[in-house]
Write a structure and sequence with these properties.
The protein is of the alpha/beta class. Helix content is about 35%, strand content about 15%. The protein has helices spanning about 1-10, 50, 60-70, 85-95, 110-125, 140-145, 180-195, 220-230, 285-290, 305-320, 325-340, 370-385, 410-425, and strands spanning about 25-30, 35, 40-45, 100-105, 130, 160-165, 205, 235-240, 265-270, 280-285, 350-355, 355-360, 385-390, 390, 400. A hairpin with a 2-residue loop joins strand 11 and strand 12 (about 355-360).
Length: about 425
């Protein structure tokens, strides 16, 4: 049946719709931190549907909320008052850290970033946008236009003029040999030089930790230093929290809080984890920015009642059970365990990250040259051992991405680390 499903998939879906594994996997159900395939085999899930199943699979509190809402009404659009949407917006606004915030719901992170770019360019009357090298912001026309990762950029055409800034990758590039203070100073100097060659941009869009790029990040405080420079020119800061939000990094609820010295972003985008698998994205912005549009706009499916019910239940659960704290504690143990393993394996160039957002960069031993074949081999070996992980990376990098649900237990972390260790040791 799986072989037949693969054939049907290839006949009706695009060639560029990537599938993991030489023998692609059909996941039929899940519970907690585990999922099962069509053959009945169980896997420990350390990727959560690309960081979307943030809390747990089949969480009873969320299942109950979705079922009860489905029994009332599933959808009505934003043309009507929507109590679950207002309630979730109130909760998110309070948690955002942005003064006088407004919240707009979308169906995905791509659409959230697209909306943020619309707001920023309209508010600033400029179509020039700053973005980070090695970044990823989605698959829409405008989001691809600000993505600094060639592997996820199928066209150079764009409605935006995008200028790329150094700083998203700490251990590669022209400033890699500098210490953290010097690295930040060099990136700021590069930004200032770039701004001297162009009209004032609308905004800088940046992921606090680059997701698709391999879970890379700058030293804490870089974006605060950028913000000081940008604020002098009225340039907005958009924090793309699609992967870092909701406590995944452990140390902070939002990734931007590692760069908070100069204040909160003007715009925050979110998605993925807040729905725990349901399709929710959104934008938080200061009221004068959110309200700058002078034409009608709605969201047909953004904020629909059933997804809002799921989001509310999920947010309640992660706050009541301190999943941010769990990500810090269990994630800290997991990353130290993986660093100890990596130190013994020549192919592991770096183990990085924070909380339950961990990257393992692979390179050909004795060099800084990326080894995508090794990354694929580890992915396959981990699956064979009963563990699902992801992979990523940008220019000349190959990284494994480890991002379990935030309810991960210490025992499950150790189980996953043991499987991953065997998979890493299997590569030659």
């Amino acid at each position: 049946m799986t072989d037949d499903l693969l054939g049907r998939h290839r006949r009706v879906l695009p060639d560029w719709l990537a599938l993991y594994y030489e023998d692609p996997l059909e996941i039929t159900h899940g519970e907690g931190r585990y999922v099962w395939d069509a053959a009945g085999r169980r896997y420990l899930d350390f990727f959560g549907g690309i960081l979307t199943t943030m809390t747990a699979h089949a969480l009873p509190e969320i299942t109950k909320a979705v079922s009860e809402q489905a029994g009332r009404i599933i959808h009505s659009s934003t043309l009507y008052l929507n109590r679950p949407m207002v309630e979730l917006a109130e909760r998110i606004a309070k948690l955002s850290g942005i003064p006088d915030p407004r919240v707009f719901f979308t169906t995905s992170g791509t659409e959230a970033n697209d909306t943020a770019l619309l707001l920023a360019t309209t508010y600033r009357r400029s179509n020039t946008v700053l973005a980070m090298r090695n970044s990823y912001h989605g698959r829409s026309f405008s989001a691809v236009g600000v993505t600094g990762n060639r592997g996820w950029s199928p066209t150079s055409l764009s409605p935006l003029q995008t200028l790329y800034v150094h700083g998203g990758v700490r251990t590669r590039g022209p400033y890699a040999a500098l210490n953290d203070r010097e690295f930040v100073a060099a990136c700021v100097e590069d930004l200032q030089d770039l701004l001297g060659h162009t009209r004032a941009p609308a905004a800088l869009i940046a992921e606090p930790i680059q997701g698709v790029g391999g879970f890379t990040s700058p030293p804490d405080g870089l974006y605060a230093a950028f913000r000081e420079v940008l604020a002098q020119r009225g340039v907005l800061w958009i924090a793309d929290e699609v992967q870092t939000g909701w406590g995944r990094t452990g140390e902070h609820f939002w990734g931007w809080q590692a760069h908070a010295k100069a204040g909160p972003p003007d715009i925050v985008t979110f998605a993925k984890g807040i729905g725990n698998g349901m399709s929710i994205g959104g934008v938080i912005a200061r009221s004068e920015i959110m309200n700058c549009l002078d034409a009608n706009s709605i969201s047909t499916f953004g904020g629909t009642q059933i997804t809002m019910a799921a989001g509310l239940a999920n947010l309640n659960y992660l706050l009541e059970h301190d999943l941010q704290g769990n990500a810090r504690r269990v994630g800290g143990l997991l990353i130290e365990r993986l660093r100890a393993v990596g130190a013994q394996i020549p192919a592991v160039r770096e183990v990085r990250g924070r909380g339950l957002m961990i990257g393992i960069e692979l390179a050909r031993p004795g060099t800084d040259e990326a080894d995508p074949q090794a990354a694929s081999a580890v992915l396959e070996a981990a699956r064979e051992g009963g563990l699902l992980i992801g992979k990523g990376g940008g220019h000349n990098t190959s990284a494994l991405r480890v991002a379990p649900p935030l309810s991960l237990t210490v025992a499950e972390a150790e189980e996953g680390a043991a499987i991953l260790e065997r998979a890493l040791r299997s590569i030659r």
